[in-house]
Amino acid sequence: MFVQHLTRGGVDRASEPQGSRVFIGGVGYHCLSDYGVGPLLVDVLSSVIRDKNTVIEDLSYNVVAAYHRLKDEDPESLKMVLLIGSVMRGRVPGEIRVYRLVDKELPDLEEVQRFIGESVSGSIDVRSLSYLISYYDPELASKVVVYEVEPKGIMPGNRLSAEVMDALPRLIKSILSLAGLESYAVKVFRELYAHVGSDGAICIAERRREHALSWEIA
Prior knowledge:
Number of domains: 1
Shape: globular
Oligomer: single chain
């Protein structure tokens, strides 16, 4: 299931903030199954995409440091920030929700401080980063789009669940489209599925590979 909450004018590029630079950041855990979908995607994207106006980085570290990394970007040249991560909200596993950060209710200071405290103790969560941005930098928040992927559960290892694996084509297609990088779609999919293991996820990978290659013909 794919749910878009881009309520302020949809994805109309004419209404997007001025600038030319797009920042794509993944947030999550590298060895905690579905919680690693953000880092996985930015690793794949960065190995394929060569665009001078696109920055692709893993932001899976202390939320305050990740916030300051985004603040390092020149606000005049920064057009958009796409943040990708898994958030457990009790929805259907593999469901993707996309929303502009400015369309969400502003968190209160107590909630922000709680997330900062959790990050100091090792918690890595795309919500923590988005809350910090919302509270302390409304200008930056106006350029942020968040991709939340519902995980199946917390499991050790780097193997994604079947539900999240099955959602990857929709997730990647949306990210590339919003960032204006559609021309990289086939290369991105080839890179992604070249690294899928030979366990149970490979069957899903092969089905998705066929789907991805069909876009090249179209």
